[in-house]
Amino acid sequence: MKKLILCLIALLTLTGCALFRTAGDAYRPDRPLSLTAKISTTFTAGTDAKNFGGMLRMRRDSMIVLSVAKYGIEGARVFFSPDSILILERLNKHYILLDYADFNRLFFLEKEVTFAKIQSFFWNGENNSSETSRGYWGMIFPFEVQVRRADFERIRNYNIPKHTQFRLKCFEADLRLDVKLTKVKINYDWSASFSIPKGYTPIATRELQTIIPELFVMPQ
Fold it and tell me: Which residue of 83, 128, 150, 174 has the lowest C-beta tally within 10 Å?
């Protein structure tokens, strides 16, 4: 499960992920807009499909937090701050901490990833219904991520999709991730900061380069 969770996190991180609906706290113009939502995802590799749940929390210009859970147990959580990315692997108490320069070196994307770009993707700042990202895994293997958004809803100044589909092509594999959000609401009652819990040990970023290719050749 560890490998599959890390793969889901990486797929979402390569291009982002997002969706929503108003409810909850009243909008406060004196504070950065903050949203939370419940996530349901289906990850498909060939004929093998896995379902996961999770949560998405976003605060403008400050933090994006994505958690992945199975059977109500959180397996991983990823934090995007303006200067770094932190991935916590809960089941085995591991973490990966890297800045955006490290991330760009790892994936060799056509366009460099920054917090501003990830935020724009999650909030659909450019009002895109579809987009494509390309890069190289380990400087050798090309990959392509296609994104399709649907079921838009206006929240303040943002057209948020409540349904996003990802399709990743790499290593002759065709992986799909279907993401839907429910219980979306404006919610200011959460902390936009992160820390590494005691007892967690670091994972080298190169481990992502070995974990994800193994998933690309999952049994069909």
Answer: 83
End-to-end alpha-carbon separation of the chain, Å?
18
| Spatial distance between the Cα atoms of 140 and 138, rounded to a whole number of angstroms | 5
CB 183 within 8 A of CB 37: yes
| Contact predicate 171/31, CB 8 Å | no
Reported as a single tens digit per residue, the pLDDT across 107-122 is 766 678 899 999 988 8
Q: Which of 22, 79, 33 is nearest to 55 (CA)?
A: 79
**Contact (Cβ atoms closer than 8 angstroms) between residue 52 and residue 68:** yes
119-139: pLDDT as tens digits = 988 888 888 888 887 776 656
Task: Check if the beta carbon of residue 164 is closer than 8 Å to that of residue 179.
Answer: yes
What tokens were used for 100?
């955006």
Q: Residues in the chain with pLDDT < 70? A: 1-24, 108-110, 136-140, 171, 206-220
Phi, psi of 89 (to 5 degrees): -100, 100
